[in-house]
Input
Amino acid sequence: MQGKQVIRTFFEDAGISNVFQLPGLHTLSLNAELFSHPSIKTITARHETNLAFMADGYARVSGKPAVILVTPGPGLGNIVAGCMEAYSDDVPLFIIHIDTDRKDIGKGILHELEAPEDIFRHFIKASFVVDEPSTLAASLYDALRTCNTARKGPVLVSIPFALLNREISGRPRAVQRFPARPSDPDKMRSFLTDLEHILKDKRRPVLLGGKALMEPHMGVLVDEICGRGLPFLTTTGGKGVTSDRNVFSFGNVMAKGVVRDILDSADVVIAAGTRLRDVDAKRRGVRIENLVHIDVDDRWIGNNYCTALHCAGDIERAIEGLARIVKERTFDWDIAGLKRQQDLEMSGFRTEAGGYALVDLLRNTVPEDTVIVCDLNMPSYWAEYYLPLYSQRSFLMPRGISPIFYSLAAALGAKTARPDLPCLALCGDGGGLPQMAELATIVQHGIPITIFVHNNNSFCILEDAMQNRHSIHGSMKLVNPDFVKLARAFGIKAKKTHTLRGLRDIFLHDVHWNEPFLVEFADRVSSPPWNR
Output
């Protein structure tokens, strides 16, 4: 086979059905190969930065690696932010870089860069440089394994474009289905023995779940464990591990009020599948006194919180063991009373015209199975803290390097992964405008997402910080277009409102979820939830 056929066969063998791309002269031969095989759908973006975030959204919702196909030089350079986010938030991106011929480096060839993979060395799991035709297939399969095992993350495969049309002898090897590396059985037994000893005299344990629990079986185990009378809290990445309708589910650990009361009353916190990074917990005032930490590896264990006990490796076995330990136990939590107290707390929020009122409106007007994709903006922060979730992989927020230019592009990837579910992108005006070129992608590929633009003509979070820290007002103002007219210029239906009542009417009567729609909400939202 020719090199391009080896790559296409690899996609088919690995079950890769979607490729996110932005073609260039170096990639055309492979583009043509993919276009001729309709089993592989290609999504062509208008900018590589958006392309990377599309793939990020696809990977988070599907739970599978997302493939990015880029050109050398500026094409590769433009995905740096997306790769940084994926590496920092454990998102499996599979980047195929169709490279120049490195033997010609130094001649001033098109898009010439020496060792371009070195750009990524601090924020990628591994780079694979194909320098001989015989290594092409092995590099692809090894990269896929690396991308999707242990702590997931981005990988990069650089392939010289001249290889695409060269004959390569032999058949590529079949994809091996690599299970997660099992934990050492003796270490796991020792951990569970120690965990049982720690929990023996504990009357108020709390389970705190992160993104690594975002699997159906893990959700069942959480229901089983917390159904014994344990409160369940999540990090932002863990929102949706189990339904917030469960009486034991109390939402994001960063919230205040009842959530802080639970943490203050706990005699041990079992944190599972979360790194407990500073930005996810400690920076937001989360105090944990007695911690059992269970994670994929030990990279983050002990970095921000001291541990009484920890386990690095097979999270599923550890959680199954926890379920056995608590099976016959009773605890001192008044779960129903705490839930009533939290309901009263939320009722008080509803009377205020602010961020919670907006989040409450969205929760009661959008379908409950909607995949909600956030930028970093005021409505999204309130959603991060207080939006109830009812299913897994239904809330996406970029908390790796925290880019603000994310939600519209990532929503396109999320909708591609789950075309059967409604999808809502929560954009700020500052973060949303640079992504608006992808309105063309929405129309070109027929991707029916709903875009919510909060237009307050400001980088609102920065304005709030500038006022509070430096007493400077108005320095973060923005000049924005009419977002409704912008959407309509692409043939996308759109409406604008200045009130919550108007917003409710638009979501109930104008948004149909099976066609693209843009909603512009032109009003301020109160200060961020951490200032309450």
Observations:
- The first strand starts at residue 18 and ends at 21.
- The two ends are 63 Å apart (CA to CA).
- DSSP finds 19 helices and 18 strands in the chain.
- Residues 175 and 525 are 50 Å apart (CA to CA).
